[in-house]
Design brief:
The structure holds 2 protein chains of 2 kinds. In chain A, about 85% of the residues lie in helices and about 0% in strands. Chain A is mainly α. The mean pLDDT of chain A is about 90. Chain A has 9 helices and no strands. The mean pLDDT of chain B is about 90. Classes of the chains: A mainly alpha, B alpha/beta. At the A-B interface, α5 of A face α2, β6 and α3 of B.
Amino acid sequence: MLRLITNRVERWLTAIGRLGVLLADLGRGLKDVDVWPGLTVVQMRRIGVDSLPIAVFIAAFTGIVLALQASYTFKGAVPLYFVGTAVGKSIMLELGPVLTGLALAGRIGANIAAELGTMRVTEQVDALETLAYDPMSYLVVPRVLASTVMFPVVVAVAVAVGIVAGLVAAVNLLDLSSVEFIHGLQLFYRFKDVWFGLLKSTSFGFAIALIGCSCGLGVRQGAEEVGRATTRAVVLSAQIILVLDAFWALLLL
Amino acid sequence: MIVFREVHKAFGPKRVLEGFSLEIPDGQTTVIVGYSGAGKSVALKLIVGLLEPDHGAVEVDGQVVHLMEREALTALRSRIGFVFQFAALFDSMTVAENLAVGLRRHGIGETEIAERSAEALAMVGLSGSEGRYPGELSGGMRKRVGIARAVVLRPRYILYDEPTTGLDPVTAAVMNQLMVRARETYGVTGVVVTHDMHGAYTVGDRIAMLYRGQVRQVGSVEAIRGSHDPVVRQFVEGRPEGALDAERAEGGV
């Protein structure tokens, strides 16, 4: 048991140490401005645009379920227009960023870790170095920048879709008009609800890409290790998202 | 000139190079032979700074590789072509893009890139393959593209890591022919790592046998062919029994 705990702690510390080194090396990669800008645009499409369908799917169903659950909870005790308040606040502050973050931790984190891990074991990373490229500026900076920039965009779309889906569900499935839903939505609205969610999602995007790169480049040999690195990237990203979520709530709310 | 000076390199408890010293003269092809796991590929990676020695030094053109700043190392790598054991082509890029990626790094214009790529592909007998992806090529073709990617840079040195491993005898002979042609056409200094003695005799001007982390014997092809050292003799003749058995029993190999 003690051995298991020691191993876990050691793995965590190793992962965090490697993240720290990667973070320090990011600065070096950023200086290589001949390399990363074009590659970042490609990654913005892969990480951002290609993630929209899954983010929209999750947000739409979350919005519908939230509206139905809020109505079930409020009925007979609280005016039903508060369904709009519950849907808006929940999606903007928490569910939009966190659910999208967790879903994209699987999609983006796993993708980055598997891609870079495979490149590592097939010596493509070494080949890049022998061609005088720094893997930091060619592989890591474009992914981290693209993820950091595109994550809030994806989350913004997801939030909008979630709220609209909640509105549609409320109007069609509940005894609520769109005017009442929007009244509820505006009732306790603050601009901070928007920027808080987007700030959180920016940090999630940065962390997921950095963890994916760290796990992928940390692979030394074999398909099995690529598989383990991919799993580690997803698990670690999910954990970091929840820790960051709590951190921002403590700091800013 | 490339010089190994008393190089030691270990991976954990496994000591790979133990006082490895070798001079690789300009304009010739030096072949390093030895058993699998003897440290031949490690020696190549030390030349381009993909690995650092634990003790000793590798010098290229009078500069100690592991002491170089990043910029100097990038400049050094632009003078060295590296042909990887499994080609290490970028699988997300076409053959043309694989050849262009190193040239773009050095600011070469697109017209010249197209000209040089066509010439390099013609040299390896793969004209017209520009638009194909590595996944669509056979193992031998991928290795030929690997050679094209190295020669297209017009390097001063080309390092070949097990260029004929895993190939049928005819394709292996083609690869040997290409290595000779690369030296004759571009006048490059070659370092070939292999355990294929037939290939070593074909492409090498000098042969060095790496054994127990050190050079057991170095000399011309004729000198190695006629070696009286029982270990070298057994290796070049490919006999299953001989002096090596006794040394293995002592924990040598």
